[in-house]
Design brief:
The structure holds 2 protein chains of 2 kinds.
Chain A: H1 3-72, H2 81-105
Helix pairs in contact in A: 1-2
Chain B: H1 3-16, H2 21-124, H3 130-150
Helix pairs in contact in B: 2-3
Classes of the chains: A mainly alpha, B mainly alpha.
Chain lengths: ~110, ~150
């Protein structure tokens, strides 16, 4: 075995080691990327859930206030359907967004 | 043939007075032999040189492969790092937008609730007639719409 053959063997070993190292680093990065994606989607979903909860609270307060006013004076009606519809529409959009994000995460 | 024997043969030739043709022939033969050996040596040397160059090329190619693996993995890692940063920024932006929208919804709700709360004592007031109460309700309704639109 001449010195070139030895050098070749050593270099082959270094190359294999380099490939293994690269594979390890890349798979670690891929894991990190997946975690960041999952964490990001989770954060967005949590914020959407908070928003939906707040909308539900606002809708409930609005309904109760309206009922109370109706109880106080049934002859006077308030037409705030626009506000109500706006909240419902936002809620529906958020629910859809949440479902899409959950699918993306899955 | 030993040296001693060769020397005795030569002495014998000298005594007989013969011209030492044999030696001339031997010298030419030796030259030819030497030339052959030299050619062979040169050939071997050249072959060794070719082998060495081939080995060097192999070593060089291996080094290039190692560097290439290293650079490819480095580029891939950099690309993924950029993707991670982009994703984090995107999430931050999206969460901030959602948070802002949520705050707006809560703020609008507080305005609506506050105005409706102020309407209640008016509707409860027995001294006011129905028409006044209706006007008050319409006014409050407009106030709510304006407040929501301005928010």
């Amino acid at each position: 075995m001449n010195k070139f053959e030895i050098i070749h063997i050593v270099l082959t070993l270094i190359e294999h080691n380099e490939i293994d190292k690269a594979k390890k680093v890349i798979s670690e990065k891929q894991r990190e990327l997946r975690l960041v994606e999952v964490k990001g989607v989770r954060e967005e979903i949590n914020e959407i859930i908070r928003s939906i909860k707040d909308i539900d609270k606002e809708l409930l307060i609005f309904k109760l206030k309206k009922m109370k006013l109706y109880e106080l004076c049934p002859d006077v009606s308030l037409n705030l359907q626009g506000y109500f519809n706006q909240l419902e529409k936002t809620r529906a959009r958020l629910v859809k967004q949440k479902m899409m994000l959950a699918k993306q995460k899955g | 043939m030993s040296n001693r024997r060769r020397s005795l043969d030569l002495e014998e030739v000298v005594y007989k007075g013969e011209i030492i043709d044999g030696n001339v022939a031997t010298s030419q033969k030796q030259d030819n032999e030497l030339e052959k050996i030299q050619i062979n040596n040169n050939h071997e040397l050249n072959m060794k040189k070719v082998e060495t160059v081939t080995d060097l090329v192999k070593v060089g190619s291996k080094i290039v492969d190692i560097i290439s693996v290293r650079q490819t993995s480095k580029a891939k890692v950099l690309e993924m790092d950029a993707e991670i940063r982009r994703f984090k920024a995107e999430t931050k932006r999206e969460v901030a937008t959602l948070n802002e929208n949520r705050k707006t919804i809560v703020s609008k709700g507080e305005i609506v609730s506050g105005i409706l709360g102020k309407l209640a004592p008016i509707l409860m007031n027995k001294d006011l007639d129905l028409e006044s109460k209706k006007i008050a309700a319409e006014t409050f309704e407009r106030m709510i719409i304006e407040a929501i639109e301005n928010e």
